[in-house]
TrEMBL record:
Ranges where the LysM domain occurs: 170-217
Protein name (Swiss-Prot/TrEMBL): LysM domain-containing protein
Organism: Streptoalloteichus hindustanus
InterPro entries: CIS_tube_prot_N, LysM, LysM_dom_sf
Region feature Disordered, mapped onto this chain: 199-226
Length: 226
């Protein structure tokens, strides 16, 4: 059975720049021995005088974080005059945290390892530690530590959370080209019910709501339900 290596796929295709060392797809030289996933929640403390501890209030979730170390080594090419700088291999990973000229930001990418790991991310930190050198000072071995933060669009998060119930207010993001009437048609099967959405979301232009705006979609009163 062949060894499955960790793959990187750059999702922001405009950021791909082979001259700078960033390809659209590449693989790690060696797989990590372990990796760490961390998911947290932001909590607020509500202080009440006279009680033993504060009441905790959930505020919001936090993005999932992935940390792993990758080893790179070029000693197979020799350690003398023909030694190969290991940075020729680490360069692509290092580019994941650097601002790319075409997008003015580090690229979004997907890291996959067989069937066990698929993580869409933006690199928060990439650390290179060089541990072996040729007699002339060329680095030949490096450990690269990646600290990645999961990337999800607002629509992806709302779809996964499914913050909705037939008789409770739910939330959704405005898509490009939508109006409150078209949203009412999707949510209530009645485009004429757009005013209920407008009343709950003051300041939103019913005809030209800004894409990405998060709307509260209230339940219709029994007499107004389609």
């Amino acid at each position: 059975m062949s060894l499955t290596k960790i793959h990187f796929e750059v999702l922001d295709k405009a950021a791909v720049d082979r001259a700078r060392g960033l390809s659209d797809r590449f693989v790690a030289q060696f797989n990590p021995t372990d990796y760490t996933l961390v998911k947290g929640a932001q909590l607020a403390e509500i202080g009440i005088p006279g009680v033993d501890s504060p009441v905790l209030q959930f505020v919001r979730g936090q993005d999932e974080r992935l940390t792993l170390e990758l080893l790179f080594d070029t000693t197979a090419d020799g350690m003398g005059e023909k030694a190969t700088d290991v940075r020729t291999l680490t360069r692509q990973v290092y580019q994941l945290v650097k601002i790319q000229p075409a997008t003015h930001a580090p690229p979004r990418f997907r890291l996959t390892w067989g069937k066990g790991l698929s993580f869409t991310a933006i690199a928060e930190q990439v650390q290179q530690r060089f541990t072996l050198f040729s007699p002339s000072g060329i680095p030949l071995r490096a450990t690269v530590t990646l600290s990645l933060r999961e990337y999800k669009t607002l629509e992806q998060q709302l779809a996964e959370l499914k913050l909705q119930s037939p008789d409770h207010t739910k939330v959704r993001a405005v898509r490009r080209g939508e109006t409150l009437a078209t949203i009412a048609a999707r949510e209530y099967d009645d485009p004429g019910a757009w005013r209920a959405i407008a009343d709950r979301n003051p300041g939103v232009d019913p005809r030209r709501p800004r894409p990405g705006t998060v709307l509260e979609i209230p339940p219709l009163a029994p007499g107004n339900a389609p």
